[in-house]
Design brief:
The structure is a single chain. The protein has seven helices and five strands, in the order ααβββαααββαα. The protein is α+β, with helices and mostly antiparallel strands. It has a domain of 335 residues: Outer membrane efflux proteins (OEP). Strands 1, 2, 3, 4 and 5 form a five-stranded antiparallel beta sheet that branches.
Length: 490
């Protein structure tokens, strides 16, 4: 199954430096806002549903991503505040005295002035965004916030996929362990038979030694599988924000979820939903806006300033007629010389934008490669599973025939051991392939940005507040979800 480059991703076709010829990047509208719903529901596994729900609520990496988004959103609101004038009141009450011995233009004749001064000024300042510097700064901050939101979605999808992959790896080990338990039971019976035959004189010490050694070897293999299972169980506990001690997932034996049926074709524009691509695109937009800000560093800036208030030497006359004061007027600042700082800053921001473009282009190429890899992997795994099923059936048949021949006295015990070993290996390999199929299907879903269904219902999990946080929540009212607050007004 091949994917083809969608026209909305034409930024990939750009080559060279972004600013070599003042290339204009085609407008790209990421679709990472389209929610995936419960993409893991295609596996119809209630335990997996609960684990992913818990991870979406309590995973600490996800909490960090949400807090970084909140931080970035606050920075965007700080940038937006530059559109409005600033006003400050600096009230003061002082008592002062002059020196009669001070040399001043007006001789005090040894007189000392002493008195109070009460001052309540209101200072107002507003920068006219004549060249668009404030607007471009705000544009960069908004894109940074959008990138942070996309990063949060990336972490969310990664956490959910990792839970599913570890869970299916654990279930595949459960199936292997169950197959090993059946084999160990049969090998134990074979050992007992060999011991009984040894006592009756119909079996040699060599046959008993081989039966005992084969049983011990398979028991050692089972111990290794159990160790791997414990590690995956602990990894899942960490992903859902719990301590590994006391966390258990009961075995389901050789029962594994079915691999979902893949669609015959998948539109390549599904990759536009990938949050990592959206994050790269928004980081590029933010850096392009910063280039615009850097270009304006050498332009003059104009501010409107005003000050008004009341001042008096007596508190009682502070608000009386005649105590008012005010000043108003524009000010202009014209950069004259900065030692090359502004030009160097412009070159640095252009380089940062070029880096962002290369990262964006690489992200798109990587996304297509990841999808192709998983589709290829699933195709080969399906074929390997077909062959392995045949192999398991034949090794089971060979084991039955070898046991029958040995019991009837016409077959060698070594043939029985070899047949048992091959049958056990075939069963284990079959379960491993089934587990790899499930894990690859999860990786494919992750590579597509969260499944191949474009019409899933909207459902975004909300993280719980940390009861051990040192600071209270910044927003007291309850929030529906952390993405809907992107452009929330003050």
């Amino acid at each position: 199954m091949k994917f083809f480059l969608h026209t909305s991703l034409l930024a990939l076709a750009l080559s060279g430096s972004l600013f070599a010829g003042e290339i204009v990047v085609r407008q790209v509208i990421p679709r990472d806002h389209i929610d995936r719903g419960k993409w893991w529901s295609v596996y119809n596994d209630a335990k997996l549903d609960l684990l992913i729900r818990d991870a979406s609520l309590a995973n600490n990496d996800l909490k960090q991503a949400v807090l970084r988004f909140d931080q970035s959103r606050a920075m965007a609101r700080i940038a937006r505040s530059q559109f409005f004038p600033t006003g400050t009141i600096n009230a003061s009450a002082t008592r002062q005295a002059t020196s009669g011995a001070t040399t001043v233009p007006f001789d005090p004749n040894g007189q000392v002035f002493q008195g109070n001064n009460f001052d309540i000024p209101l200072d107002v300042s507003y920068e006219i965004d004549l060249w668009g510097r404030v607007r471009k700064s705000y544009e960069a901050a908004v894109n940074d916030t959008a990138a942070a939101a996309a990063n949060t979605r990336t972490v969310l999808l990664a956490v959910q996929a990792e839970v599913a992959q570890n869970y299916f790896g654990l279930r595949a080990l459960d199936a292997e362990i169950a197959a090993m338990d059946r084999a160990i039971t049969l090998l134990t019976e074979a050992q007992n038979i060999a011991l009984a035959k040894q006592k009756s004189g119909t079996a040699t010490d060599l046959e008993v030694a081989r039966a005992t050694g084969e049983l011990a070897m398979q028991q050692a293999e089972r111990t290794g599988l159990q160790s791997q299972r414990d590690q995956l169980e602990n990894a899942i506990a960490v992903l859902i924000g719990r301590r590994p001690q006391g966390f258990d997932i009961l075995s389901t034996g050789e029962k594994l979820p079915a691999v979902p049926t893949l669609p015959t074709s998948v539109p390549s524009d599904l990759l536009e939903r990938r949050p990592d691509i959206a994050s790269s695109q928004r980081a590029l937009s933010a850096n392009l806006a910063r280039v615009g800000v850097a270009k304006l560093a050498g332009y003059p800036s104009i501010r409107l300033t005003g000050s008004g208030g009341v001042v008096s030497g007596s508190l009682g006359d502070l608000f009386s007629n005649g105590s008012e004061k005010w000043t108003i007027g524009p000010s202009i600042s014209i950069p004259v010389f900065a030692g090359g700082k502004n030009q160097a800053n412009l070159e640095a921001t252009k380089a940062a934008a070029d880096i962002s473009l290369a990262q964006y282009r690489q992200q798109i190429i990587t996304a297509f490669a990841e999808v192709e890899n998983q589709l290829s992997s699933l195709d080969h795994l399906a074929l390997a599973l077909t062959y392995q099923t045949t192999a398991m059936e034949q090794t089971e048949k060979a084991r039955t025939l070898a046991k029958t021949r040995y019991d009837s006295g016409v077959g060698a015990y070594l043939d029985t051991l070899d047949a048992n070993r091959s049958a056990i290996s075939s069963q284990r390999r079959l379960h491993q392939l089934r587990g790899q199929q499930l894990i690859s299907s999860v990786t494919l879903i992750k590579s597509l940005g969260g499944g191949w269904n474009q019409n899933m219902p909207t459902e975004i999990p909300v993280t719980k507040a940390d009861p051990e946080a040192l600071l209270p929540a910044a927003n007291a009212p309850k929030k529906k979800n952390f993405f809907q607050r992107l452009f929330k007004k003050d």
